[in-house]
Specification:
This protein is of the alpha+beta class and about 575 residues long. It has helices spanning about 1-5, 55-65, 115-125, 175-180, 185-195, 200-215, 220-230, 285-295, 305-310, 350-360, 365-370, 425-440, 455-460, 480-485, 500-510, 515-530, and strands at about 20, 30-40, 70-75, 80, 85-95, 95-100, 155-160, 165-170, 250-255, 260-265, 275-280, 300-305, 320, 325-330, 415-420, 445, 465-470, 535-540, 540-545. The model is unreliable at about 1-25, about 390-405 and about 575-580 (pLDDT under 50).
Length: about 575
């Protein structure tokens, strides 16, 4: 159905007008000899983060350096159009029609042009229209029938001598700006990996791909989809062609299965200012901070605690900010546990009372006072899971858990298994405060933290009842935060399902007027709170530390997006490179 078809997985709300969305391109200002070593939290696992399971935060963050894009993150953390790469024009509101035109200078690192064949690849991979679910042609990029880019049911029209594609949406779609972009991998590279030596050059490979897409030749596309899924992982022999990139940086070296990656500024117009970037994975946040303090790295970020902040003073340049990430609790309602109606003979009301009663025991104010305000004295409690337009939701048991209602008898006797990242000291401290408070209401909390907590979260619903972790949403993408609450959402791994909530998600996703959309999202926040599915806590304090290799502070961002701030990196004039490796 059309309403259900509007369920979205990605979002960025844009201004809709029949004008070019863009800004004037600056001249190349890469500083010769400049170098920066960035300490990140995890190794890169794949060069194709469009593939589910190869889309870790580290994978997506590296792609910000290596992928061509119609959009970029500015020094203040906001997103803007990247006219160096191409332009975006909204041609019509009804039907909603958008044209993407690549700049003539947009090229892959092997010299081939970025063109319409590559843009068609995005449409192919992120829709169901060139997929055979029962066969061998599948892209595993999270496409779902009637979701996001799948609303473009017709093959995009190619124009401008192969430099543009025009997308016509079947239904108005508020999330259009993030629904489509250039892919991180090249169409001609995929064809060469799928059909080695068959095509004389990149142009011939692109033509073959475009013809197959237009004709719906799933048999021909099958080996191309296999290459898309399998040939960009870093846990084996990476084909040399898989390193072809189109972003601000080219890949010079990959070592230690993605734990060490060297990049050089590409000979393409971009926002890059630093000539050489070394990315080094250091899982321990204390190690990252120490690396900057000791000269082994120039830039690092981590969730802040008092010990890390004290250590960062040795580096000379550091900042604690609220960032975009916020901690929250999600309750599992379909795993056969204490919040699943099936545990009460199908009594949904009894399960709801159990959820609301448990959430009322969470000592949010004490957690904020003890763990956050020593670092961010004025930081408030978060009042909603979405908070569209800065609007706080109305009070309810799940948004005001420090109140006495609901009745304690609904919580007494519950045993709640709480999942969170193992080894995370702040989450462990949050769990300890929650456990102490819950015990006073007769609730027993069981620590089921795991080093593989993400896999448990998505794949083992029977292994936990509540999950404690952070969301790090794009601040401009409020609709994306809302989609998780829809019954059919890929991210909804909790069994949440409610017709009113589904309708609000659909309506917000299709609302092109910002005021109307924010009103719908505010109502959705209230509805989610009333269902007692999830509980917002507070912003995660973010520590950023940098060396004198940078002339000024980088943009404020959560630690898992530190590479995406490269447009804000201004190399110091008196430093040719890092003091470490």
């Amino acid at each position: 159905m059309r309403r259900r078809a509007l369920v979205t997985t990605l979002a960025l709300i844009g201004l809709l007008a029949g004008v070019v969305v863009g800004c004037s391109a600056d001249e190349d200002r890469v500083v010769p000899g400049s170098s920066l070593t960035v300490a990140t939290a995890a190794p890169v696992t794949s060069l194709n983060p469009l593939v589910l399971g190869q889309d870790s935060a580290a994978d997506r963050d590296l792609a910000a350096l290596t992928s061509g894009s119609f959009w970029q993150r500015e020094a203040d953390g906001t997103r803007s159009a990247n006219e160096r790469f191409g332009t975006v024009r909204v041609l019509s509101r009804d039907p909603f029609t958008v044209r993407y035109t690549l700049d003539a200078s947009a090229t892959w690192s092997d010299g081939a042009a970025v063109d319409a064949a590559d843009l068609l690849l995005t449409w192919v991979a992120r829709t169901t229209h060139r997929t055979d679910a029962a066969g061998e042609t599948h892209w595993d990029a999270g496409a779902g029938a009637g979701q996001a880019l799948d609303l473009v049911s017709q093959v995009p029209e190619i124009g401008d001598d192969g430099r543009s594609v025009t997308l016509v949406y079947d239904t108005p779609y508020a999330d259009w700006q993030l629904a489509f972009d250039a892919p991180p991998v090249a169409a001609h590279v995929l064809v060469d990996l799928a059909y080695p030596g068959r095509y004389a050059d990149a142009a011939a490979a692109k033509t073959a791909f475009t013809d197959a897409v237009r004709a719906g030749d799933l048999d021909w596309l099958a080996p191309v989809s296999r290459a898309f899924r399998e040939d960009f992982r870093l846990d084996g022999d990476l084909p040399a062609a898989a390193r072809v990139t189109a972003g601000a940086y080219d890949i010079a070296r990959i070592a230690d299965e993605g734990r060490s990656i060297d990049l050089t500024a590409a000979d393409r117009a971009s926002a890059a200012r630093v000539e050489r970037v070394q990315v080094r994975a250091m899982q321990d946040p204390a190690e990252r901070v120490a690396a900057v303090a000791g000269g082994g790295a120039d830039l690092a970020a981590a969730a802040a605690d008092e010990g890390l902040v004290d250590a960062a003073t040795a580096a000379g340049r550091s900042r604690v900010s609220a960032g975009d990430a916020f901690d929250h609790l999600d309750l599992q309602t379909a795993g056969g546990g204490v919040f699943d109606p099936a545990s009460y003979g199908g009594d949904a009301d009894r399960a709801h009372r159990a959820r609301a009663a448990f959430l009322s025991t969470v000592p949010r104010q004490q957690m904020l006072d003890d763990l956050v305000r020593p670092l961010l004295a004025a930081e408030p409690l978060r009042q909603g899971m979405i908070e569209a337009g800065g609007q706080a939701v109305a009070a309810s048991p799940s948004s005001t858990p420090d109140s006495a209602a609901p009745p304690a008898t609904d919580a007494a006797g519950l045993t709640v298994r709480v999942l969170y990242p193992a080894g995370d000291e702040r989450r462990a401290a949050e769990f300890a405060l929650m456990s102490e408070s819950a015990s006073r209401a007769g609730v027993t909390l069981v620590d089921v933290s795991s080093p593989d907590w993400g896999d448990v979260l998505r794949g083992q619903p029977g292994a936990y009842d509540a999950a404690l972790f952070a969301w790090s949403p794009d601040p401009a993408a409020t609709v994306a935060q809302a989609t998780v609450f829809h019954t059919a959402a890929v991210q909804n791994v909790y069994g949440w399902s409610d017709e009113e909530v589904d309708a609000l998600v659909v309506d917000a996703s299709s609302a092109l007027d910002r005021t109307q959309r924010d009103q719908l999202l505010s109502r959705l926040d209230e509805a989610v709170s009333d269902r007692a599915w999830a509980l917002p806590l507070f912003a995660v304090p973010q520590l950023t530390v940098w060396s004198d290799a940078l002339a000024g502070p980088p943009a404020e961002v959560s630690g898992d997006r530190i590479l995406a701030t490269f447009a804000s990196w201004r190399p110091s004039s008196d430093r040719a490179g890092p003091t470490g490796e």
